[in-house]
Structure prediction request, 326 residues.
Amino acid sequence: MIELPPDRPRRGGQRPGGDGADPRPLESAFVAAEPAPTGPLIGAAPRPEPRKGRPAWLEILMGILGVLALGWVVVIGGRWAAARLALALPYSVDRSIGELAAKEYDTSASTCTNPVLVGAVQEIVTNLEAGLLPEHRGLVVKVIDDSAVNAFALPGGYLFILTGLLQELATPEELIGVLGHEVGHAVKRHGLQRIAEAVWWKLVLSQIIGDVFGLSQVMADGALGLLSSAFGRDHERESDTFGLGLMHEAGYAAGTFPDFFDRLPASGLPDWAQTHPDPGERAQTLRAAIAAMPPPASLRTPPPLASLKAPCFGGGAPLPAAVPVE
Prediction:
C-alpha cells in the first residue's frame, strides 16, 4: 500500500485523517481527456500521396528491353571475347583445323595436275612465303577445276585457287595480289576467329533451345563453312593491306593488282549490309597505298599469263589464239 504524505491534501480537498468523504463523484477526480483535433494541425508536414504503380505495358516493355540488353552483352561481347581468346592458341591449332577441312574439299577428281599450271602457281606462293615468319610458312596451295571466280584460304595456310578466277586474269600480278590477300587471311587467323565465334553462338543456342545439332562437329562444320561464307569487311581490308605489302616485299610490281577489283561487279547492297567492302573502294584504297610505297628493291618477273591459264589437266599451256586469215 502506497500512502500519501501527511501534508498533501487528497483530491477533492479532504485532508487525511478527516471523517468526511469527498463530496464529488469519483469521475470528477480524473481530468477528462480532450478530444483529438479533427482538422489539420498547423505546421504539420503534409501526408505523402500514395505512390501509383507503373502501367503493366511499361513493366513489360522494360522487361523486354532488359532481356535484349542482356542478350546483346552475352552474344556480342561473347563473340568478341571468343575471337580474342582464339588468338591466344598456338598456330598449330589453325593447321589442324585447316587440314581437316581441306580433306573434305580437296578431291583427286577436281584438283588440277597440269605441271605447267600448278608449277606457275606454286612459284608465286613460294616467293610470297619467303616474307612470312617461320611459323606461318609451309603454305599448301591447290588449283581446283571450278568455273566460279573465287579463291579462299583455310586456317593454317591451305590456299585454294579456282580455275574460273584464273581465266578472268588480265595480268599475272592480279593473281599475285589475290594470293597475297588469301595468305593474309591465314596469317591474321581470320578463319580461326570466325570458328571461335561460331562455337560461342553454338554454346549460347544450346543453352536456350538445347543441344539440337551437337557440339562435336562444330569445329569441322565451322571450318567447312569458310568455303562458302564471307569474311567480314574489316578482315577483307586487313588482308588487302597485308597482301599488298607481301607482294611488294617479294619484288612483284603491284600496279595492276587493283584492276582486278575494278572488274568485280558491285553487290548493289547498302554499305552496312555488305560482307565485303565495295570493289571500287578497295581498288581506290589499294591505288593510294601503292602510290605511297617506294619501288621494290629488285623487281621480280612473274610467271607468264599463259601458264596461269593452262588447262587443269594435261601437260602443257594453251595454244595461242589462231590468227584469222585475211
